[in-house]
Amino acid sequence: MQTEEFVSEVARAADLSDQDEAATIAHATVETICAHLPAEQVRELASQLPREMTRAAEDGRTQTTENPAEISQDEFFQQVAIRAERDRAEIEPAVRAAITVFKRALSRGETTDIVLDAPRELDALLTA
């Protein structure tokens, strides 16, 4: 999957007419997910993502620790909103769309690993 396809799928799933908006939210979503995964896991998944999303994953990896902290879904959405410089109340559908496309870009095994490694509170988002 190429970056343009990734962003277009996010835009379509989130009903966004602005591709730049979809790209911003997709980048912020991937970065936030990866900030809450072990660094080695991010390195493994980054190779399966389009170039721009690999950059987002690496941006997230630079913010992670060996044992990422727990985070609630609300905190997750808030962090994405801050990174995307968007309103928290309006961003949730697009973030959910970005997560869906993110998972489709990865192998089934990698997606399973992410669910196992991510904070428990994000399980519902990552398995939906």
From TrEMBL:
Which species?
Answer: Salinisphaera hydrothermalis (strain C41B8)
Which InterPro entries does UniProt cross-reference here? DUF2267, DUF2267_sf
Native organism taxonomy: Bacteria, Pseudomonadati, Pseudomonadota, Gammaproteobacteria, Salinisphaerales
Looking at the UniProt entry, the stretches that span the membrane are none
Highest rank taxon of the organism: Bacteria
* Protein name per UniProt: DUF2267 domain-containing protein
Compositionally biased residues, Basic and acidic residues? 52-61
Positions of the region Disordered? 50-71
